[in-house]
Amino acid sequence: MLYIIDSADPSFIKDMMDKYEILGITTNPTIIAKENKEYIPLLQELDALLTGKDFHVQLVDETYEGMIAEANKLRKIIKTILHIKIPVSDAGFKAIRRLSSYDFSVTATAVCTVNQGIMAAINGAEYLAIYVNRISNSGLDGNAVIKDIKDALLRFNLNTKVVGASYKSVHQVTDSIRNGVDQVTVGKDLFEKLFYSDITEKSIKQFTNDFNDLYSNEEVK
Ligand code: G3P
Predict the structure, then answer these.
(1) Model confidence pLDDT, tens digit, residues 138-186
(2) Ligand 1 pocket: which of 4, 6, 59, 132 to mutate (most atoms <8 Å of CB)?
(3) What is the pTM of this model?
(4) 129-139 per-position pLDDT tens digit
(5) CB-defined site of ligand 1, < 6 Å
(6) Closest Cα to atom 3 of ligand 1
(7) CB-based contacts of 127: which residues, under 8 Å, 6+ apart?
């Protein structure tokens, strides 16, 4: 499967899960803060909603010791499939290595360069979250980074999965899929636009009108 929701909004996530088959959700401290709710009860509410699905939770602490303690705490709270999201900072690389060796599933995040991605994979990360739009906003090509990382992982026999993140347009997501991404995590503003097409809507309208021009409802229902 491919699609993840980049949000911590329980009602939005529930609506989307009613309509679409999704892998799970990703969060980051900004996304969590947007919900303006108590942190642990919010995590527990999302956990209950996501039973059996992926829950990528980003660590807030920026220190190595703090990251280890926070990850152990999250493991006690989260019952569904937990992936600890760790930014590829100086302390982050060390925590990725240690927590992966403790059998935590780690998602290395805020990955913006090929070398960051490859080293995080070598350090044991199971997933890499590549910031497509933020990279592109810096003048580089976020989807080229995805392609280069995918090619390198294949060449070096690293099974780490590449997750495209930080999207601002449907086109960026489509381009990631063209460039071989394994999964994409998409925010509330963009998620449903991925599956919307004016052409589809106009076609449905034309079919319905053409049919209704000849047949009455009684004849159908
Ligand atoms: O967690 C990564 C992603 O949510 C960042 O997205 O839109 O803030 O660049 P954005």
Answers:
(1) 999 999 999 999 999 999 999 999 999 999 999 999 999 999 999 999 9
(2) 6
(3) 0.94
(4) 999 999 999 99
(5) 6, 26, 28, 129, 131, 133-134, 165-166, 187
(6) 166
(7) 56, 83, 105, 106, 107, 108, 160, 161, 162, 163, 183
